[in-house]
Design brief:
Elements: H1 6-13, E1 17-21, H2 28-43, E2 47-51, E3 81-86, E4 106-110, E5 123-124, H3 131-141, H4 148-162, H5 173-184, H6 189-197, H7 202-214, E6 216-218, E7 223-228, H8 230-236, H9 243-251, E8 258-266, E9 269-276, H10 282-287, E10 292-293, E11 297-303, H11 306-316, H12 318-321
Parallel strand pairs: 1-2, 1-3, 3-4, 4-5, 7-8
Antiparallel strand pairs: 6-7, 8-9, 9-11, 10-11
Helix pairs in contact: 2-3, 2-4, 3-4, 4-5, 4-6
Length: 323
């Protein structure tokens, strides 16, 4: 992992109030980073506003929704205020919160690939397995020992983005060292696993079965695709969508090198999640349609019906699978 830029430390030291913002449709790494960073900044005597555009559709995140505002509250002295945006490196990814944000200095902490030119106080590191790992490094660089609660939030995010460490390769030693530190500080692997994977509804298991029944192969089975509809949401509920387990099951199919799931969010609007194995770069495909992410895990929001979006994206994989 890269060293924390001294400019970011100075950025934090030189401001008294922070808007802590994550991307829309937050995941565990995003929320864990925001919560831990906000708690740390408060311990430093800073005023903090936790912001998220939501929606909080993941079951394991619902308990945190009440901690976040979706509108930026005013500050009496904007000259002493700043924003730190985590788990993305573009204002376009934070959603509707951006419409109420005041004009304040911004620093990004992110581990996704980006073509944007980094700002002087940005902390960007594609080699980091999770933004929560980067936030932990910021805390250490500023002489802060995480509390038990902060350690739990950081561990939660780290486990989310690493798939409980199954996504790490031979370059993942740093993540295990951070995990060990966080466990020593009070994080519980058992409780975190239950938090991420437990408490699912029977509806979520039934929806999972329906999505699996819809999986269709393309390019000789190297690409597998499926979808959910508005009718599914009405029948099973938003919280029944369990993408991580679904991707695990699909990617375990023999011969599968990539997959994507189209989720209908409105009549003419969908979100899409991609997963792949080396050397397939799904982030580059997502980027062609305004999305992004990691090489092996990416996503996007796109206009169109389920059928039109599926056709468009299946054709986009031709550059990968057609010689």
């Amino acid at each position: 992992m890269k060293k924390v830029p001294h400019q970011l430390i100075e950025f934090i030291e030189n401001h008294e109030c922070f808007y802590i913002i994550g991307h829309r449709e937050p995941d565990g790494d995003c929320i864990g980073s925001q919560l831990a960073l906000a708690s740390f900044l408060k311990s430093e005597g800073k005023r903090v506003h936790l912001l998220s555009s939501g929606p909080f559709t993941r079951f394991e995140l619902l308990q945190y929704e009440h901690k976040f505002k979706n509108v930026a509250p005013p500050e009496p002295d904007y000259e002493r205020a700043a924003a730190i945006i985590v788990d993305c490196s573009s204002m376009s990814r934070i959603g509707s919160v951006s419409e109420t944000m005041p004009q304040v200095p911004i620093a990004f902490i992110d581990h996704h690939a980006s073509t944007a030119k980094p700002g002087i106080a940005d902390y960007l590191d594609e080699s980091a397995s999770a933004v929560t790992a980067m936030v932990y490094e910021v805390m250490k660089a500023m002489g802060h020992k995480p509390t038990r609660e902060e350690a739990a939030w950081l561990f939660f995010g780290l486990c989310t983005d690493t798939g409980f460490f199954r996504h790490l390769d031979d370059k993942g030693a740093d993540s295990f060292e951070i995990a060990a530190d966080l466990v020593r500080l009070g994080a519980s692997p058992k409780q975190t696993y239950d938090q991420i994977n437990g408490g699912k509804s029977l509806f979520s298991r039934k929806l999972l079965g329906e999505i699996l029944m819809r999986v269709e192969p393309h390019y000789d089975g190297r690409l597998l695709v499926s979808y959910t509809t508005l009718d599914d949401q009405q029948k099973y509920g938003m919280a029944s969508r369990d993408s991580d387990l679904l991707y695990q099951l699909i990617m375990a199919v023999a011969g599968c090198q990539a997959c994507f799931l189209v989720k209908q969010e409105a009549e003419n609007q969908c979100t899409v999640g991609f997963r792949s194995k080396e050397p397939i770069d799904v982030a580059s495909i997502a980027a062609k349609f305004g999305g992004g992410g990691h090489k092996l895990a990416a996503g996007l929001s796109i206009q169109g019906t389920v059928d039109s979006v599926m056709d468009t994206l299946i054709n986009a994989f031709a550059e990968v699978f057609v010689d």
